[in-house]
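Task: complex structure prediction.
Instruction: return structure tokens for all chains below.
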Amino acid sequence: MTIRNSSDLLTATLFLAFGGGVLLYNGTHYSIGTLARMGAGCYPMLLCLGLIAMGGILMVQALIDPDEAVDAIDIRPVALLVLATLLFGLLIEHAGLLASSMMLVLAARFADRDAALAESAVLAAALTGIATGLFWYALGLPFSLLPF
Amino acid sequence: MGFFQDLAFGFSIALLPVNLLYAFVGVVLGTLVGVLPGLGPVATISILLPVTFTLEPQQAMIMLAGIYYGAQYGGSTTAILVNLPGESSSVVTTIDGYQMARKGEAGLALATAALASFFAGTVSTFIIALAAPALAEVALKFGPADYCSLLVFGLVGAVILAHGSVVKAIGMILIGMLIGTIGIDVNTSVPRFTFGIPQFGDGIDFAVIAMGIFGIGETIANLTQGEEQRGRVAGALRLWPSWRDLRAIFPPSVRGTMLGAALGVLPGGGPVLASFSAYALEKRLARQPERFGKGAIEGVAAPEAANNAAAQTSFIPLLTLGLPSNAVMALMIGALMMHGLHPGPQLMRDKPELFWGLIASMWVGNLMLVVLNLPLVGLWARLLAIPYRFLYPGILLICCIGVYSINNSALDVVIASLFGLFGYGLQRLRCEPAPLLLGFILGPLIEENLRRALLISHGDAAVFIERPISATFLALTVALVVVLAAPTIRGARERAFNEG
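Output:
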């Protein structure tokens, strides 16, 4: 029997790790209480036990009858799109709406290998303009546009 | 008497100019996202949640509901014209709809879809108005134990009837419920899993998770799958069906509506299941089943009626029991909660203008869709030409600005982007994220009712099987799990034996 990187196996690992980790943290930090007067830790504990049980079943399934393997992940678009949104979150309070929107669109466009720089710049300017018009001007959301 | 008064009251609300405006905005937006593949109603409603915060709850719900059923319309437009289902509920429509378009009957197919949907929408509006008050009456008698069991039944049912692995789906619910425990515990005032960050005291905002997973996560998934293939519009547009066509459309529309209305109420039912079942039923009833797949007009009418009926009746459990039967309904609960309203039997009593206004607005919205969309078909088809590379940065930008605007918190944007990554990971693991969202919404309600039930019974867990309503729901839950898990277990075992 060969063990493959099947999606079931990876999911089982995720369930077991998440359930086990939270169970441990929960057990050391919050009280369980009694059934009539549950402590803060009782309900999360039950959920963790359930999650671990699901992880266990899935693990057995995966070892007996592995499903399709998970293909390699194309890192570039994933990393750049997450980076783009993270950048927006980190910049918005300091650099203002205009700069952070431009950065987000540019970073997101570079997730695409065929992105042309000029086209991306125009798109960034256009989308920033639309977003500013919509959210700042029309809806009147309290953003600062520029760094100060 | 009461029934017509209530409906008339609803229409007096729905026909207010401001409500008409939001219904209009909703159905146009819905049609738009229905036409654009890669952007569904779940993502759109998640993205718009923060915007609805600035509206009155009534208008917010009317607009969001409009997006939901508008998307069913838009999805079928592209399914018929270019063989590209904009929504999963219009997958079946591609089979015969696109064949009709290739025969030069695109206009007729579109009109059929619109008329069948409108018929279904009209009937379901009445079904909701009739059934909902009765159900809410029953639901008001529920004790905490009953409610807890009902919620568990709803959660498990919603998951099992959807596609994919049952075990994974239950795991996803549990993860969602665990994320739902973040924040100050209401009963003991202990801050749970806040890691000393004060902002976590109120828990993570629902919209942040929804936008992260559905907005950002799906954008990542779409982009890594590469550019979608796009087709061309085929055939001239003769819109209006002849008398003979109408007679051919009517019976399948009635059957599709009935089937869809019934399936929509079930947890996990909803438009997708309804459209597939209605198509299968028509094919079985047809005198010449070989016509199906070659442009049979029944094959367009029945699933379109069914998906629209189901989209509407799935509001019944939401409005009367506070139970979302699918991901869109979970978002609706989220939207109501953001306005400090708890969906459930009290809603109809405390907020009749919202309840009846929403129901009446569904009919108004359906009418708008028929009137608007038929002339605009050409425009919608042309929208398909917008390349995804221009769309996705815009989607991301709206997501980020939306998340930030909820609390003016940059931390929320960071959390959403991490949930985006998590959501993409789940997609790769073939775990559906919708159950996680259902768990996140219902988890705190289950905990509250569980603790209250056990407090009343002095810690006697037997209360859940001693109360007949609660026992019934638990028995149904167990039966559902056994019936649906059995074949997969058996199948796996047989395969294992064969290999050995």
